[in-house]
Amino acid sequence: MSITVTVLDDYQGCCAFLDAAHELDGSDVRLDIEHQHLDEDALPARLADSDAIILIRERTSLARELLMQLPRLKLVVQTGRLSSAIDIDACEELGIAVRDGGGSPIAPAELTWLLIMAGCRRLGGYLARQAEGDWQRTNERLEAESLGHAVHGRTLGIWGLGKIGGRVAGYAQAFGMEVVAHGREGSAGRAFELGMAFEPDRHAFLARCDVVSLHLKLNRDTRGMITPADLAAMRADALLVNTSRAELIRPGALLDALDAGRPGAAALDVFENEPEGASAYQAHPRVLATPHIGFVEKDTYELYFSTAFRQVREFFTA
Question: Is 22 a residue of the active site?
Fold first, then answer.
Protein backbone atom coordinates (compact mmCIF):
# COMPACT_ATOMS: atom_id res chain seq x y z
CA MET A 1 0.00 0.00 0.00
CA SER A 2 1.46 3.36 -1.04
CA ILE A 3 1.94 6.29 1.31
CA THR A 4 0.22 9.51 0.29
CA VAL A 5 2.25 12.66 0.92
CA THR A 6 0.45 15.92 0.20
CA VAL A 7 2.34 19.11 -0.57
CA LEU A 8 0.16 22.15 -0.01
CA ASP A 9 0.28 25.52 -1.78
CA ASP A 10 2.71 24.70 -4.60
CA TYR A 11 1.76 27.90 -6.43
CA GLN A 12 4.53 27.56 -9.03
CA GLY A 13 3.84 23.90 -9.80
CA CYS A 14 7.50 23.09 -9.30
CA CYS A 15 7.81 20.56 -6.48
CA ALA A 16 7.53 17.40 -8.58
CA PHE A 17 10.13 18.69 -11.03
CA LEU A 18 12.84 19.64 -8.55
CA ASP A 19 16.00 17.57 -8.40
CA ALA A 20 15.03 17.05 -4.75
CA ALA A 21 12.12 14.85 -5.85
CA HIS A 22 14.65 12.08 -6.58
CA GLU A 23 14.88 11.63 -2.80
CA LEU A 24 11.64 9.65 -3.20
CA ASP A 25 12.89 7.39 -6.00
CA GLY A 26 12.30 3.72 -5.21
CA SER A 27 9.99 4.45 -2.30
CA ASP A 28 6.31 3.66 -1.82
CA VAL A 29 5.45 7.34 -1.59
CA ARG A 30 2.74 8.80 -3.80
CA LEU A 31 3.32 12.53 -4.14
CA ASP A 32 0.04 14.44 -4.09
CA ILE A 33 0.49 18.14 -4.91
CA GLU A 34 -2.07 20.88 -4.35
CA HIS A 35 -1.37 24.04 -6.36
CA GLN A 36 -4.18 26.22 -5.05
CA HIS A 37 -4.48 27.85 -1.64
CA LEU A 38 -7.43 26.17 0.07
CA ASP A 39 -9.53 27.72 2.79
CA GLU A 40 -9.98 25.95 6.09
CA ASP A 41 -13.38 24.54 5.11
CA ALA A 42 -11.93 22.71 2.08
CA LEU A 43 -8.89 21.26 3.82
CA PRO A 44 -10.42 18.31 5.74
CA ALA A 45 -11.78 16.66 2.60
CA ARG A 46 -8.68 17.46 0.57
CA LEU A 47 -6.36 15.95 3.19
CA ALA A 48 -8.53 12.99 4.20
CA ASP A 49 -6.26 10.44 2.49
CA SER A 50 -2.95 12.04 3.46
CA ASP A 51 -0.46 10.06 5.53
CA ALA A 52 1.91 13.05 5.57
CA ILE A 53 1.68 16.75 4.81
CA ILE A 54 4.50 18.98 3.63
CA LEU A 55 3.94 22.68 4.26
CA ILE A 56 5.63 25.37 2.20
CA ARG A 57 6.49 27.74 4.99
CA GLU A 58 3.39 29.33 6.57
CA ARG A 59 1.11 29.37 3.52
CA THR A 60 -1.37 27.08 5.29
CA SER A 61 -1.93 26.67 9.02
CA LEU A 62 -2.62 23.32 10.65
CA ALA A 63 -4.82 24.11 13.63
CA ARG A 64 -6.10 21.63 16.20
CA GLU A 65 -9.60 21.59 14.69
CA LEU A 66 -8.22 20.52 11.32
CA LEU A 67 -5.75 17.98 12.68
CA MET A 68 -8.51 16.23 14.64
CA GLN A 69 -10.31 15.55 11.35
CA LEU A 70 -7.31 13.74 9.77
CA PRO A 71 -7.09 10.28 11.36
CA ARG A 72 -4.66 8.95 8.71
CA LEU A 73 -2.14 11.73 9.26
CA LYS A 74 1.12 10.51 10.79
CA LEU A 75 3.67 13.17 9.81
CA VAL A 76 3.84 16.92 9.21
CA VAL A 77 6.95 18.42 7.65
CA GLN A 78 7.59 22.16 7.78
CA THR A 79 9.95 23.48 5.10
CA GLY A 80 12.30 25.86 6.88
CA ARG A 81 12.13 26.32 10.61
CA LEU A 82 9.10 25.48 12.70
CA SER A 83 6.58 28.27 13.01
CA SER A 84 3.24 29.05 14.59
CA ALA A 85 1.53 27.64 11.47
CA ILE A 86 1.50 24.21 13.17
CA ASP A 87 -0.28 23.47 16.45
CA ILE A 88 2.57 21.50 17.98
CA ASP A 89 0.68 20.60 21.16
CA ALA A 90 -2.20 19.14 19.16
CA CYS A 91 0.20 17.11 17.02
CA GLU A 92 1.82 15.66 20.12
CA GLU A 93 -1.53 14.73 21.67
CA LEU A 94 -2.74 13.13 18.42
CA GLY A 95 0.46 11.18 17.84
CA ILE A 96 1.45 13.12 14.73
CA ALA A 97 5.20 13.51 14.26
CA VAL A 98 6.54 16.92 13.25
CA ARG A 99 9.78 17.60 11.39
CA ASP A 100 11.36 20.82 10.19
CA GLY A 101 14.42 21.82 8.21
CA GLY A 102 16.85 24.65 7.77
CA GLY A 103 17.21 27.57 5.43
CA SER A 104 19.61 30.00 3.87
CA PRO A 105 19.80 33.78 4.31
CA ILE A 106 20.98 34.34 0.74
CA ALA A 107 17.70 34.57 -1.18
CA PRO A 108 15.80 36.78 1.30
CA ALA A 109 18.82 39.05 1.70
CA GLU A 110 19.11 39.47 -2.06
CA LEU A 111 15.41 40.24 -2.39
CA THR A 112 15.67 42.77 0.43
CA TRP A 113 18.46 44.56 -1.40
CA LEU A 114 16.45 44.46 -4.62
CA LEU A 115 13.52 46.13 -2.83
CA ILE A 116 15.78 48.76 -1.30
CA MET A 117 17.19 49.69 -4.70
CA ALA A 118 13.82 49.52 -6.46
CA GLY A 119 12.06 51.47 -3.72
CA CYS A 120 14.64 54.24 -3.67
CA ARG A 121 14.49 54.59 -7.46
CA ARG A 122 10.63 54.43 -7.53
CA LEU A 123 10.83 51.47 -9.89
CA GLY A 124 7.31 50.22 -9.16
CA GLY A 125 5.74 53.54 -10.13
CA TYR A 126 7.84 53.91 -13.27
CA LEU A 127 6.98 50.43 -14.52
CA ALA A 128 3.28 50.86 -13.77
CA ARG A 129 3.07 54.18 -15.63
CA GLN A 130 5.19 52.87 -18.53
CA ALA A 131 2.67 50.06 -18.97
CA GLU A 132 -0.01 52.77 -19.31
CA GLY A 133 2.01 54.66 -21.94
CA ASP A 134 3.56 57.35 -19.73
CA TRP A 135 7.29 57.93 -20.16
CA GLN A 136 9.51 58.66 -17.13
CA ARG A 137 6.58 59.15 -14.79
CA THR A 138 5.73 57.49 -11.50
CA ASN A 139 2.25 58.91 -11.00
CA GLU A 140 -0.73 59.69 -13.18
CA ARG A 141 -1.08 63.10 -11.51
CA LEU A 142 1.79 65.50 -12.15
CA GLU A 143 1.41 67.16 -8.76
CA ALA A 144 2.02 63.77 -7.10
CA GLU A 145 5.16 63.02 -9.15
CA SER A 146 8.43 62.43 -7.27
CA LEU A 147 11.97 61.64 -8.23
CA GLY A 148 13.81 58.61 -6.89
CA HIS A 149 17.34 58.81 -5.54
CA ALA A 150 20.59 56.88 -5.42
CA VAL A 151 21.50 54.93 -2.29
CA HIS A 152 25.15 56.02 -2.23
CA GLY A 153 25.88 58.35 0.67
CA ARG A 154 22.59 57.65 2.43
CA THR A 155 21.91 55.77 5.67
CA LEU A 156 20.45 52.29 5.93
CA GLY A 157 19.02 51.16 9.25
CA ILE A 158 19.01 47.42 9.98
CA TRP A 159 16.50 46.52 12.69
CA GLY A 160 17.66 43.07 13.75
CA LEU A 161 21.24 42.31 12.77
CA GLY A 162 21.04 38.55 12.26
CA LYS A 163 22.14 36.42 9.31
CA ILE A 164 19.90 38.15 6.78
CA GLY A 165 20.36 41.63 8.19
CA GLY A 166 24.14 41.17 8.24
CA ARG A 167 24.18 40.27 4.55
CA VAL A 168 22.01 43.25 3.65
CA ALA A 169 24.37 45.49 5.61
CA GLY A 170 27.29 44.17 3.56
CA TYR A 171 25.49 44.92 0.29
CA ALA A 172 24.72 48.44 1.49
CA GLN A 173 28.32 49.14 2.44
CA ALA A 174 29.47 47.94 -0.98
CA PHE A 175 27.14 50.55 -2.52
CA GLY A 176 28.52 53.34 -0.36
CA MET A 177 25.78 53.53 2.28
CA GLU A 178 26.31 54.24 5.94
CA VAL A 179 24.80 51.42 8.01
CA VAL A 180 23.42 51.69 11.52
CA ALA A 181 21.89 48.81 13.45
CA HIS A 182 19.17 48.66 16.09
CA GLY A 183 17.71 45.84 18.13
CA ARG A 184 18.39 43.82 21.23
CA GLU A 185 21.64 42.67 22.80
CA GLY A 186 22.40 40.22 20.02
CA SER A 187 22.23 42.96 17.39
CA ALA A 188 24.37 45.25 19.52
CA GLY A 189 27.03 42.56 19.88
CA ARG A 190 26.98 41.74 16.17
CA ALA A 191 27.30 45.44 15.28
CA PHE A 192 30.35 45.69 17.52
CA GLU A 193 31.90 42.63 15.87
CA LEU A 194 31.32 44.09 12.41
CA GLY A 195 32.56 47.55 13.33
CA MET A 196 29.12 48.96 12.61
CA ALA A 197 27.26 51.80 14.32
CA PHE A 198 24.53 50.81 16.77
CA GLU A 199 21.73 53.12 17.91
CA PRO A 200 19.96 51.84 21.05
CA ASP A 201 17.21 54.48 21.07
CA ARG A 202 14.36 53.36 18.82
CA HIS A 203 13.06 56.75 17.73
CA ALA A 204 16.54 58.19 17.26
CA PHE A 205 17.34 55.21 15.05
CA LEU A 206 14.20 55.63 12.95
CA ALA A 207 14.69 59.38 12.55
CA ARG A 208 18.31 58.91 11.46
CA CYS A 209 17.74 56.57 8.53
CA ASP A 210 16.88 57.12 4.88
CA VAL A 211 15.93 53.44 4.63
CA VAL A 212 14.86 51.11 7.46
CA SER A 213 14.89 47.35 6.81
CA LEU A 214 13.19 44.98 9.27
CA HIS A 215 14.86 41.65 10.08
CA LEU A 216 13.16 40.46 13.25
CA LYS A 217 11.79 37.04 14.12
CA LEU A 218 8.09 36.95 14.86
CA ASN A 219 7.29 35.79 18.37
CA ARG A 220 5.19 36.80 21.34
CA ASP A 221 7.49 39.72 22.14
CA THR A 222 7.86 41.11 18.63
CA ARG A 223 4.28 40.72 17.34
CA GLY A 224 2.88 44.21 16.88
CA MET A 225 5.93 45.82 18.50
CA ILE A 226 6.23 48.54 15.82
CA THR A 227 3.61 51.13 16.70
CA PRO A 228 2.10 54.17 14.97
CA ALA A 229 4.38 56.34 17.10
CA ASP A 230 7.42 54.46 15.78
CA LEU A 231 6.35 54.94 12.17
CA ALA A 232 5.66 58.62 12.81
CA ALA A 233 9.27 58.98 13.99
CA MET A 234 10.52 58.13 10.50
CA ARG A 235 11.31 60.88 8.03
CA ALA A 236 8.86 61.99 5.36
CA ASP A 237 11.32 60.91 2.64
CA ALA A 238 12.24 57.58 4.27
CA LEU A 239 11.61 54.09 2.88
CA LEU A 240 10.48 51.20 5.09
CA VAL A 241 11.40 47.74 3.79
CA ASN A 242 9.86 44.58 5.26
CA THR A 243 10.78 41.13 4.01
CA SER A 244 10.50 39.58 7.46
CA ARG A 245 6.96 39.42 8.87
CA ALA A 246 4.01 41.78 8.40
CA GLU A 247 2.81 41.07 11.93
CA LEU A 248 5.78 42.91 13.41
CA ILE A 249 3.78 46.08 12.73
CA ARG A 250 0.49 46.84 14.49
CA PRO A 251 -2.47 45.94 12.26
CA GLY A 252 -3.39 48.83 9.95
CA ALA A 253 -0.65 51.08 11.30
CA LEU A 254 1.52 51.11 8.18
CA LEU A 255 -1.26 52.10 5.77
CA ASP A 256 -2.33 54.88 8.13
CA ALA A 257 1.28 56.04 8.48
CA LEU A 258 1.82 56.13 4.71
CA ASP A 259 -1.36 58.16 4.29
CA ALA A 260 -0.08 60.54 6.97
CA GLY A 261 3.24 60.90 5.13
CA ARG A 262 5.68 59.18 7.48
CA PRO A 263 7.37 57.11 6.21
CA GLY A 264 7.25 58.38 2.65
CA ALA A 265 7.16 54.93 1.05
CA ALA A 266 7.31 51.21 1.77
CA ALA A 267 8.66 48.17 -0.08
CA LEU A 268 7.02 44.99 1.17
CA ASP A 269 7.25 41.26 0.55
CA VAL A 270 5.07 40.19 3.50
CA PHE A 271 1.45 40.90 4.41
CA GLU A 272 -1.17 39.97 7.00
CA ASN A 273 -3.53 37.16 5.96
CA GLU A 274 -1.78 36.29 2.72
CA PRO A 275 -2.64 36.28 -0.05
CA GLU A 276 -5.91 38.22 0.35
CA GLY A 277 -4.41 40.72 2.78
CA ALA A 278 -1.90 41.99 0.23
CA SER A 279 -4.51 43.76 -1.91
CA ALA A 280 -4.74 46.94 0.20
CA TYR A 281 -0.98 47.42 -0.02
CA GLN A 282 -0.69 46.56 -3.71
CA ALA A 283 -3.21 49.30 -4.49
CA HIS A 284 -1.40 51.97 -2.44
CA PRO A 285 0.57 54.50 -4.51
CA ARG A 286 3.44 54.64 -2.01
CA VAL A 287 3.96 50.87 -1.78
CA LEU A 288 6.14 48.58 -3.87
CA ALA A 289 4.73 45.10 -3.22
CA THR A 290 6.07 41.67 -4.12
CA PRO A 291 4.09 38.44 -3.43
CA HIS A 292 6.19 36.98 -0.56
CA ILE A 293 8.95 35.70 -2.83
CA GLY A 294 11.90 36.17 -0.46
CA PHE A 295 12.39 32.39 -0.32
CA VAL A 296 10.76 31.55 -3.65
CA GLU A 297 13.66 30.61 -5.91
CA LYS A 298 15.16 27.35 -7.12
CA ASP A 299 18.14 26.99 -4.79
CA THR A 300 16.03 27.54 -1.69
CA TYR A 301 13.33 25.15 -2.90
CA GLU A 302 15.93 22.47 -3.60
CA LEU A 303 17.25 22.91 -0.07
CA TYR A 304 13.78 22.85 1.50
CA PHE A 305 12.44 19.87 -0.40
CA SER A 306 15.53 17.69 -0.40
CA THR A 307 15.31 17.87 3.39
CA ALA A 308 11.54 17.39 3.47
CA PHE A 309 11.44 14.43 1.07
CA ARG A 310 14.34 12.75 2.88
CA GLN A 311 12.52 13.16 6.20
CA VAL A 312 9.38 11.59 4.71
CA ARG A 313 11.32 8.63 3.35
CA GLU A 314 13.23 8.06 6.57
CA PHE A 315 10.07 8.32 8.69
CA PHE A 316 8.11 5.73 6.75
CA THR A 317 11.01 3.30 6.30
CA ALA A 318 12.22 3.39 9.90
Answer: no
Among 57, 245, 262, 286, which one carries the catalytic annotation? 245
Residues 102 and 303: beta-carbon distance below 8 Å: yes
Predicted pLDDT of residue 47? 98
Do residues 90 and 136 share a domain? no
Where are the extended beta strands (E) located within the chain? 3-7, 29-33, 52-55, 75-78, 97-100, 155-159, 178-182, 197-198, 211-214, 239-242, 265-268, 287-289
Name the active-site residue from 274, 284, 297, 310. 274
Q: Give the Cα-Cα-Cα angle 66, 68, 69 (nearest 5 degrees).
A: 70
Does the active-site annotation cover 199?
A: no
My answer on whether 281 and 196 are in the same domain is yes
Same-domain status, 49 and 89: yes
Give the pLDDT confidence score for residue 24 in this predicted structure: 93
**pTM recorded for the entire structure:** 0.94
Q: Report the pLDDT averaged over residues 9-21.
A: 95
How many domains, in total, are found in the chain?
Answer: 2
Name the active-site residue from 122, 262, 292, 313.
292
| 152 has catalytic annotation | no
